[in-house]
Amino acid sequence: MQTENTVWHPHLVTKADRARLKKQRPCLLWYTGLSGSGKSTVANAVDDLLFERKCHTYLLDGDNVRHGLNGDLGFSDEDRIENIRRISQVSKLFVDAGLIVSTAFISPFQSDRDMARNLLDDGEFIEIFIDTPIEICEQRDPKGLYKKARAGEIQDFTGIDSGYDIPHQPEIHVKTAEQDIRACAEQIVDYLITNGYVNQ
Ligand SMILES: Nc1ncnc2c1ncn2[C@@H]1O[C@H](COP(=O)(O)OS(=O)(=O)O)[C@@H](OP(=O)(O)O)[C@H]1O
Ligand SMILES: Nc1ncnc2c1ncn2[C@@H]1O[C@H](COP(=O)(O)OP(=O)(O)O)[C@@H](O)[C@H]1O
């Protein structure tokens, strides 16, 4: 989508300039997984480890963004697509600002995750599959939402009566049922160090 009669204005200070100043390689850590899989928990733990390493980061989290920017959207397929479209565009701006950005949204459709990937330059989009069996998510049920969905009090609930596409080829595959929160976070930070996004 492009608005008529507007012209893109090039900036004097570029993304590369901002990255050099911050001594890091800007990127987007795109967490995806079921409700209760551990997206927010792991993303927060990674953000904390990166902050300790003096990285410049920003975390966009599902529930929080739905309180503000996307407060007008629900959970139909169309609204989820629009949710991810807006988040992708906002994330692109934050990456352009030189930050290591994390997004923690269910983002159930592969086509939308691919759309977000294609907005960014090569190597900037890191898809992180928070892979937790639905039985475990349901046992955890940190917000009591599975209980409500099973009771028919919430419609279109991901994994119950709304779909989730398993990521095809995520850069990072995290199994939260097999390792603790700290180990999950370290797995991701190790990837960022090994691949030159942050310094050793
Ligand atoms: N119907 C239904 N399905 C799934 N999730 C629901 C629903 N209703 C409310 N919630 C709460 O909203 C959070 C998911 O929002 P997202 O923006 O991440 O969803 S999506 O990416 O647009 O699919 C999700 O947060 P997380 O549990 O952190 O994933 C829930 O707390
Ligand atoms: N290894 C783990 N990684 C992430 N979360 C875990 C792990 N083990 C247990 N949990 C718990 O699972 C729940 C995940 O909730 P949350 O992070 O809100 O998930 P999501 O953001 O995907 O909905 C939290 O209560 C967290 O403490």
UniProtKB/TrEMBL annotation:
GO MF term (any one): ATP binding
Active-site residues per Swiss-Prot or TrEMBL entry: 107
EC class name: transferase
Pathway: Sulfur metabolism; hydrogen sulfide biosynthesis; sulfite from sulfate: step 2/3
Keyword Phosphoprotein: yes
Family annotation (CDD domains): APSK (cd02027)
Pfam family, one: APS_kinase
Amino-acid positions noted as binding ATP in the UniProt annotation, renumbered to this chain: 33-40
Record keywords: ATP-binding, Kinase, Nucleotide-binding, Phosphoprotein, Transferase
Ranges for domain APS kinase: 25-175
PANTHER family assigned: ADENYLYL-SULFATE KINASE 1, CHLOROPLASTIC, BIFUNCTIONAL 3'-PHOSPHOADENOSINE 5'-PHOSPHOSULFATE SYNTHASE
Membership in a protein family: Belongs to the APS kinase family.
NCBIfam families: apsK, PRK03846.1
Protein name: Adenylyl-sulfate kinase
Source species of the chain: Thalassotalea mangrovi
Gene coding for it: cysC
